[in-house]
Amino acid sequence: KTTEIHTARDSMRMPFHGMRGFSLIEVCATxxxxxxxxxxxxxxxxxxxxxxxxxxxxxxxxxxxxxxxERMRSNIDGAMNGYYNTVGKTLNLSNNTNCLGGVANATTGxxxxxxxxxxxxxxxxxxxxATQDLLEWRxxxxxxxxxxxxxxxxxxxxxxxxxxxxxxxxxxxxVISVSWVxxxxxxQEYRVSxxx
Length: 196
Fold this sequence. Notes:
Layout: H1 8-13, H2 24-74, H3 76-80, H4 126-144, E1 149-155, E2 173-181, E3 187-194
Antiparallel strand pairs: 1-2, 2-3
Helix pairs in contact: 2-4
């Protein structure tokens, strides 16, 4: 009977048939799959940022429309006399002598004096208040929205978004339209109708 004795040195020389590592092809395939996944994730993140930006502008348009509605409700006589109607009328807002004592600047919407907007105890008539409100409102729309513009009219038939405002200066329904251009260059509009 022969006995074989294996030493530690002999076991190091024996091939390991049951063990193997990753091949280069497997590592490359994993890298490609991981790269595609990360590109998809980056694209998803970019789309989310674009939608967030569009949502911000839509929200700003809504805030501006609400701002003008509140201004009109606080000057109900000016609203009912049609002083807020901007469609089909040329408004000379650059030289509006503000009844608070300063001349309104067409670019900034602010008066030359540093007075706060307080028409309660002033000598403003409803048309002057409406003119100042429109100046401040349009300036805000232009500053907050890309290529922003705003119109308002009194109508008996508000019409649909995307269609021109159908203003007949009759009735007690007002339509406020806030327009801007999105990042793709497409015209966007926020339109709301209300009764003051």
